[in-house]
């Protein structure tokens, strides 16, 4: 065993890992990365097929992000945001606000559902990771309900199967028994409403087909009726939900559960019209993950700060360029009250997160010092300069000519490659939104019968893929493919071929 692997075995406790299994074999110890490839301590190469747990966007060791970090290092790595401002965080906040307020792209035009009237996201609270971004939104929404609406016991609603992080507030919003049940006495109570999990929805009357279940489902949007009932009851009691928390377009750790077109706009409209603030968790979905859509500059957010005479000459080149749609909420014309982002914010380089909020939320925390309306929350590394520098370079890359079109090409290629998997009887559902794909494994596609947890079906498939040089992790019985945007067609073919192979090989055992 490599000496570093021995050290790992001796001292490290890995996240979401049964350490008894971990200690049985030599771990893959990563020493290098370039583009979509990772290299281990023995010089073996692997494709990073889940973008290092959904974080990486443009590939590893990207020259532009590396350069931005090196430049920033020449100035300063970190100074506190408690009492001090800094350059990269200020620039980044402005750009995030603009990106988050983008209007819906062409796919939203002529849509047949009502989205709630947009609210403008105006302020950025920086933190460290997805969980803290959610905690910030939770605490802010809680206080709004208490202070502004006189609600003594603000309560939150989230989606069945939801996952929003591992800190106690975020866990309270979660509804995955396997992760969350053990801590139930430690948590505060939240409610859930059913997610639109078309493949396993009790209201979907359609028999299984060899297609994404969203496309052949037969239902009457009963999931939205349930949401409406829940929010209506709370409103009637005079204590509307403080917030409705959701991942837009695709629920990740719940099992890559995509929302059928129109669900998000409708759900947001229902929740908001019953008094709930909308808390969008774009920790996984943000920064183009759910697919890019183009829009003209005229429809963007406030671009006055980008005019050639404006204060930010470094951004002038963006003034005349169509903006890509970076957030899933924008794609269905939903402008939430809070937008939480992390993972892809720095292109997957550094732990940094942000929670965007409306001016109205911000104003509710203004007052004289002694009124103590201050938002008493913050982290040591809030607004960290290195993270912000990486995030600015990430935004430059996302907005650069060709990024959206090449990501869209990769998206189409992924759809094309995945088609072959329908031939496998252990593939129950294949669901793709943008550059996120989930392949749900079942005992037999005709019955949708799931595997027993002890069979470790998807784990074994991923282990076989790793032997073929492709790394990813499953969620439950769902194998996740989430390539970095720089993955080549050949690498994508290798990825999907490894998955097909792994399922076929494991078939006897499955
Ligand atoms: N929200 C979502 C939707 C996530 O997928 C995750 C992490 N997978 C989180 C929140 C928590 O993020 P972090 O692990 O960075 O705390």
Task: Quickly describe the structure.
Helices cover about 35% and strands about 15% of the residues.
Tell me, what's the shape?
globular
| Structure class | alpha/beta
Q: CA-to-CA gap between the ends?
A: 30 Å
Taking all Cα atoms into account, the compactness measure Rg is: 22 Å
Main pleated sheet: 7 strands, mixed
Going across the biggest sheet, name each strand in turn: 4-14-13-10-7-5-6
Helicity level, as a percent range? Answer: 25-40%
Q: Tell me the β content.
A: 5-15%
Number of helices: 17
Describe this structure in words.
A hairpin with a 2-residue loop joins strand 15 (427-433) and strand 16. The chain has 17 helices and 19 strands. It is α/β, with parallel strands linked by helices. Helix 5 (87-100) packs across helix 14 and helix 10 packs parallel to helix 11 (263-273). The chain has helices at 3-11, 19-22, 51-54, 63-75, 87-100, 130-147, 168-173, 177-180, 213-216, 222-236, 263-273, 328-331, 359-363, 385-399, 403-418, 457-467, 489-507; strands at 30-34, 37-40, 45-48, 121-127, 156-159, 191-193, 243-246, 250-251, 257-258, 277-281, 294-295, 323-324, 338-341, 353-358, 427-433, 436-441, 470-471, 474-475, 478-481. Bound molecules: 4'-deoxy-4'-aminopyridoxal-5'-phosphate (PMP). Residues 129-131, 134, 163-165, 247, 252-253, 281, 283-284, 342 line the site of 4'-deoxy-4'-aminopyridoxal-5'-phosphate (PMP).
